[in-house]
Design goal:
361 residues, alpha/beta, Aspartate Aminotransferase, domain 2, 2 domains, 3-stranded antiparallel beta sheet, 12 helices, 12 strands, 39% helix
Length: 361
């Protein structure tokens, strides 16, 4: 009898990623506020560019993503040669783990960090290390106390998900300064656009040789369905990641849509303006109902109830009204609901439904 076929160590320890719910029985067109998507969708310029790109679907896409990297560099004030584009920022996470982690090495993330940090670490054969947070905020001291000679990557989402909290520049600098020289600090800026004045980590990347920042087109740009993200890093790290990146990882349609979206700065600015106004209204509204909620620096809020039972009851009530939010129990918040900031009318529906719920309990 032949020996069983086994995958690499760590693979079978991976729990499948669970995305936000999108369908609701009994509701043909539910209000989806479970995945932190831009409720206004892509810019018209991006839609037009994607439509035009369909005609060239028989052609292979660009392998170097030169046009998109140039557009990002122009708008964000970056060096195009130090940008790598991926299938969402998820692929950048995976490439970093594949290139710099492995058996006997550690990949560190915080207690409520994005599930892909652990998944990609295990896929690379590395050991994921979870560090506690303090009051739903990344604890710099806890990370520095735990980081050691085997720590190769530290992933920090800023603003964080699902907490929506934020680390200021001085805390990030202290973290970067305190990590071992052999460790790469990765700043996941999926929600960076929503934190006014935040550069996503650009200054830290440009001042050090062991800091990487990641960004995505899935949130502020409304292009979650295209799966486009990018990393900005020291040239030596970009050169390594480029060696293992698939040559045609982004479609021509995705490249065209993302490039047009980058240039449509007015669309993004308007989406961010409405988000900031509605985020404040939603936060204030849930607090008035006696539901705890930290200040948010993203496009969602984390509403915290008395316990898990109340959170589940609130979730059930929202679903009865055709509203889908996310119960982030698998991220360590069984007593909470994460609610995407929608359009003004969407947020009014949420607040009305929660008011009814609180009035009935």
């Amino acid at each position: 009898m032949s020996a069983p076929i086994r995958p690499q160590p760590g693979i079978l320890d991976i729990a499948l990623y669970q995305g936000g719910q999108s369908a609701l029985e009994g509701h043909a067109d539910p209000l989806k506020l479970s995945s932190n998507e831009n409720p206004f969708g892509p810019s018209p310029a991006a839609l037009e560019a994607m439509q035009a790109a369909l005609a060239d679907s028989h052609r292979y896409p660009s392998t170097d993503h030169a046009r998109l990297r140039a557009a990002i560099a122009e708008v964000q004030g970056l060096d195009a040669d130090r940008i790598i584009c991926g299938v969402g920022s998820d692929e950048i996470i995976h490439l970093l783990c594949q290139a710099y982690a492995g058996e006997g090495l550690e990949v560190m993330h915080t207690a409520h960090g994005f599930a892909m940090y652990r998944i990609s670490a295990l896929a690379a054969g590395a050991t994921p290390v979870e560090v506690p947070e303090g009051e739903r905020v990344v604890d710099v001291d806890a990370i520095l106390e735990r980081a050691g000679p085997d720590t190769r990557l530290v992933f920090i989402a800023n603003p964080a998900n699902p907490t929506a909290t934020f680390l200021a520049a001085d805390a990030l600098t202290r973290l970067a300064d305190g990590l071992p020289a052999t460790c790469i600090l990765v700043l996941d800026g999926a929600y960076a656009e929503f934190a006014e004045g935040y550069d996503g980590g650009r200054a830290l990347v440009e001042a050090r040789d062991n800091v990487v920042m990641m960004r995505t087109f899935s949130k502020a740009y409304g292009l979650g369905g295209l799966r486009v993200g990018y990393g900005y890093a020291p040239q030596a790290i970009i050169d390594v990641l480029t060696r293992i990146r698939g040559p045609f990882n982004l479609s021509g349609i995705a490249l065209a849509g993302a490039e047009a979206a980058v240039h449509d700065t007015a669309w993004v600015a308007e989406c961010l303006r409405v988000n900031a106004e509605e985020r404040a209204r939603l936060t204030g509204g849930v607090r008035q109902l006696g539901i705890a909620c930290d200040d948010s620096f993203a496009n969602f809020i984390l509403a915290r109830f008395a316990d898990e039972a109340e959170a589940l009851a609130a979730d059930k009530h929202l679903k009865s009204r055709g509203i889908i939010v996310r119960h982030p129990k698998n991220y360590g918040f069984p007593q909470a609901l994460r609610i995407t900031v929608g359009r003004p009318e969407d947020n009014s529906r949420v607040l009305d439904a929660l008011a009814d719920f609180k009035g009935a309990t």
